[in-house]
Amino acid sequence: MARLLRVRWLMRAPIPLYRASLGWMFGNRLVMIEHRGRTSGERRYVVVEVIGMERNVVRVASGFGRTSQWYRNLAANGVAYISVGPYRRVRAQPRLLDDAASAARLAEYASAHPEAWRHLHSAMEELQGGEPEIPVVEFVPPADSGVLEGE
Question: Domain range holding 16?
Answer without folding.
Answer: 2-140
